[in-house]
Amino acid sequence: MSSPEVNPVLQCILTGDTEGLQQCFENPEDPNHEIASQQLQEQDIVGRSNLFMACMLGRSDILQELVKYGADINEVTSRGYSPLHSVAVWGHSETLRTLVELGADIQARNFQDERPKDVALRYMQTECVDILDWAEAKQALQMYISYIQGIITDPEKVQGRLNKEDRNTTMNLCHLKSDWLLNTKNPSIKDFIEQKSQLENTLQPILSKLNTPPSGSLKNTKLRVSGSSRGSP
Known about the structure:
Layout: H1 8-15, H2 18-26, H3 36-41, H4 50-57, H5 60-68, H6 83-90, H7 93-101, H8 116-122, H9 126-152, H10 155-158, H11 164-183, H12 189-207, H13 217-230
């Protein structure tokens, strides 16, 4: 990574100059406009870009601008550390929250097979641990909804096992939970767990049908057996 004297993007990050950063990227008259994107991607010897510097300093506003201009929130260093790992080390809870909201991978693993939550635990950054626990509970509900929707829209998995009413009921329940995710203000970890459990319990009778042979398959098997018997000497 270049020194601040030759990298105005880094200089803006170090000083928290959001307006100056915007000028670099958005003002064609700015002397650094043409090379701003290149400066954004410059890395130091271990593979940390300027985004990592914003994370280490806890500059949430700067971070959002960098992502807007093309920074990758899931890039990793030579040792597998992501920006989320970096924030967890330094304990910048609001910046960590910003990364999570922007879609940073909370399951990313470094060279020691540690997730950001594991790093936060190691450095006793309890507030960061709490935020990541919350994000994990939310993600678990989101992933379960997506998993169920994927099953219901796969003809090979539902054909002959689920009728139209089963499929509609399942999709409607998934939509309801998705709406809950979008519209519920300040849900807790407990809320996410309860919503997922409710969905699992409600769908259990329907999903159990997926473990049975498709309707008609047993009948066809019996017909084939009968036909074989009649043809026997």
